[in-house]
Amino acid sequence: MAKTLHIRYTSDMHGxxxxxxxxxxxxxxxxxxxxxDEFPRDGNTLILDGGDTLQGSPLxxxxxxxxxxxxxxxxxxxxxxxxxxxxxxxxxxYHFVTLGxxxxxxxxxxxNDYLQNLxxxxxxxxxRDKAHRLPIAPYAVTRMESGLRVGLVxxxxxxxxxxxxxxxxxxxxxxxAFEAARDMLEVIRPQCxxxxxxxxxxxERDLEDGRLLSPTSENQACRICSELDYDLVLTGHxxxxxxxxxxxxxxxxxxxxxxxxxxxxDVTLEDDGxxxxxxxxxLPAQKxxxxxxxxxxxxxxxxxxxxxxxxxxxxxxxxxxxxxxxxLHGNPLANFVNEVQRQTSGAQVSTCAMPNEYKGLPKDVTIxxxxxxxxxxxxxxxxxxxxxxxxxxxxRSAVYFDLDDEGRIILGETFTRPKVQHYxxxxxxxxxxxxxxxxxxxxRVTSILLNGHEMAADEAVSVCVNSYRYGGxxxxxxxxxxxxxxxxxxxxxDAIIEYISQHPDIEVDDHxxxxxxxx
Length: 519
Known about the structure:
5'-nucleotidase,  domain 2, 2 domains, seven-stranded mixed β-sheet, alpha/beta, 17 helices
């Protein structure tokens, strides 16, 4: 008789459990609470998650700011555990999860608090803490009611070592994700009928034509599917909804982020060993789960009160803009973030990027406006750069631009494939610079003015970057190789809030630091 397995899979929820985007109080079609009522509770279903669960929303941001005593009052009951994220995951019925790179952002103590309260078993074969305090297993084999034996392995992109706080990295043992997936496959193969990989990583190739899109090993799903024989590879990290398909010898799928849907995968194992896969995206229900709403209601009230706290006043509103338009004509919001970073770090030059989507700041700013606009959990690093290094840095951002057949500036393919990456275009403040898109890539920066004069080849400048960019990924290797002058362990969103609160009336800098040609 054929054996069946049903899977519900989420990934990259980033703290979005309530049906809101937090930019306002309006309900939105996101969040686990609108998905979990559709999760079957039977002996032939597995509820799985691919990581990046703890960081990314004002809810999880505020929770980490609270004292231990305050954290204990954030749930209406402790029936499902003492940690709000674990409690809602337990209520949803998760069986297995893996870790995402952002799950380390608050440190190993916060991660341990979450995992110790989580009913699901955390699987991660390539990352462990050296003290062996985190309850993590490399793999698991479970037998379904149908008799199907399912082997599950978890791995996370090893680029955690590049992005994470060095103090946290020092506590971890981090191995290559592909190698760990390969090694664990040999362990589970004799024990199971179906082999599943939970991979917090994405696709390094174009899934339509096979072109290599990234030469790094940050994402390795295509290699895993072509070289290893997992039956099912559940991916994440890229925030790129990808419908289920066969890729190499594996069936693979990826959900979007902030839980706009869940992946439903149905597997049938025939008596002759043939496996059939079917999948779909499960869309949010009309109403959120009532028990989950009640469970996290005390924390939700705290979050709304905090978000609506006035922060300060700007001379003009700084709304979100079309990304290409802002890059071509100057972005006052980026100028503002860079000014905060320069003041906080003491650097001569500052760089920042804007998210793909963000709220923007009104004239009268609340904390909600700030955390809905600067959505990342980044600290700051100050580096020393000569002209050649700084030019190389700007040249990488200049790849953002391309020309169409009529000579008009358009987005470069590097920043749109396999997904749109406006957040990898950096704005610079403190130097005036010219980018000529008509020139070859690598030769587009024709001028860098520091304090009104052309920067000399041997002239040094201090440059403030965020901790993510310091990791050097996405073509920014010149940043990670620059000499480190100092670190500023202040969250950028906190720095923005503090700056606004200390300056009651802020005159916004409208200076266009960049000139992009042709006009």
